[in-house]
Every structure is written in C-alpha cells, then in structure tokens.
User: Fold this.
Amino acid sequence: MMRIETVCLDKLGSRRMPLRNRIDRALRAGTLAVAVTLACLAVQGTISAQPYPSRPVKLIVPFPAGGSIDMVPRVLGPAMSDLLGQPVVIENRPGATGRIGVIAARQSAPDGYSFGIANAVTHGISPAVNPNVGYDPVSDMVPVVWLGEAPNGFFVNAKLPARSPTELADLIRKNPGKYNYGSGGHGTGQHVNATIFLSTMGVPQSASTHVPYQGEAPALNDLVGGHVSYMITSGSKDLVDSGKLRILATTGRKRWFRYPDVPTTAEIGIPDIYYTGWVGIVAPKGTPQSVIDRLNEVANKALQDPKAREVLAKNGYEPRGGTAADFAEHLRNEATRWRTQVTKTGVKFH
Assistant:
C-alpha cells in the first residue's frame, strides 16, 4: 500500500503535465498506480462536509498490470483527472481468473472510494463455467458505466494451411491430436471460446488439446513459434502485419476496424461464435445513486477525449459509454448468453 501512495503523490505532483504525456507515462508505468479522477460521495460523519473526493479513489482491476483490461482505465485516467482533480489508485488484484479482484471490490465499503473493473471474463464467462465463483455478476455490484469493447479473432500460425475457421475445423477433425490451441489460462475467454468453436463445428473436444499459459502474452509467443496451432484472442496486429500470424475471422457483430477485410464469424455462417472483450466500472452495493451518476458523467466525457480514443483504437478498443442502465442491461444479457453457450458445449470446466 505504501508504494501505491508514493506513486499517487508523484502523479499529483505532475498534474500540470500535458494530457498526452500523462497518458503515455501512465501506460509506461504498468504497475499499481495511475492518476485518475473520479466523482464520488463524501464520507459520512465529519468527513461528509468536505468537498468530494477528498482523497484518492481506488479502482480494483482483477487482472495483472499491462494487460488490455488494465489498459482501458489507465488510458482514460488523465482525462478524468482533468475533469475532477483527484487521483485514483489502480490496484491490480489478479488471481483465480479474476475472482480475487471481483470479490475484493464487492466487499469494499460503499463510501465512494472503491470501485471495481468488470469485464467479459469476470462478469460473463467465469460465473457461467464455475458455479462456485463466489459472486453474482448481475446483482452483487452496481453498474456504473460501460467503457469499451474489442472483438477477438481466430489467429493461427502463418504456416498452418487453414484460411478460414471451417478449414481449421476440417484440419483438426482429420488429424486428431495434431493441432492444439493456447490460452491465457484455464477458464479464460480464449479457453472457453475454443471449446465453443469445437462444439459448434462438431469436432470432439479430445481432437484438439488445450494448452493453458500464465497470461495471453506467452501463449501468443508460442503461437508465433509454432508450439500451439491457433488461438481465439485479441491477438496482435503487428504479428499479423509482419506475416507471423494469420487472422481467419473476427468474433464481433460487425467487422473489426483493425481488420476491415476480415469477415466476422456471422458472415461465414457460424454466428454462435460471438465474443467481445468488454470493460466497465461497477460499484459496491449501497453506493449512493448521486455517486453513480457523477462517475458515469465523468467517464462519458473522458471517452470523448481525442488522445484517449486514439490509444484505445490502437489497442483495438471501441469506446462505449452510455448510461448506467445501459451497462446494467449489457451485464444481464452477457450473464444469460454465457450460461446458454457453456451449457450447449457440454464441457465441464471445474
């Protein structure tokens, strides 16, 4: 905790730094703290008379620093700071496929100084695959705002002959055990989406071995090296542009702006394979509505910042925003959809 406070004070000392420089600095930091501003509630008692916020606000990210889920609030932080003038500490609480961080956020005091970062894994996939996840993705926290989303893609090693998901499924079916897939860990989006792919295409799960890694980056490295054959993930445009990987299709409702010439899974006849890696903010139950409304307003304004939008786009994300009610509806839809999808596969993840 001492390190968090030290970094936070450093950020306070640099508030006059240009917004572009602060975004770059926050992204380079990649550790536990980033200067962000959030509007919240004054604490009860003697503190309640003070202007809010009167101290740093904590965003609990349930995955490690440096990943895409951590990147989104980190990029939006400087613009939000300009709007509100108080720092927020980003506290990374990884572990158990996001479960540790989600429970930490849920158990935080509803005093306006602690929020959680919800995402497709923790609030869609994990509760669907793990009946003992320890929280309800819809009712245990209060939706604040949907920040952004990015589709995934079917990525294969460039030496693999497949040019479409259908051809990939045919290769696996004809050569059981030869073509394996990587993921950032057991029960992650990459893992679950691959099982859905195999199930949808009528390929036995045993025909393609799952190889879990400690995060997406080492899995991508082994995909490039040919140690695994394919992944359904956010991937790397640089690796595609350099010819080391090939992307066969994308998993959004519309074509991904990063790959405008690559069809969606729906376009090629497999609409059940749909996934976007979304990110949003949630609050502990009991957080006053005035806090939810103010934070939603600030986040929506930050999402319009040109530099923030530029960096989000570079990382494949499309800004979302909207009302807290919009985000609540999205959470409900995701929870229902993933329960249905996981049930259809028949795969037991735990």
In short: The first strand starts at residue 57 and ends at 61.
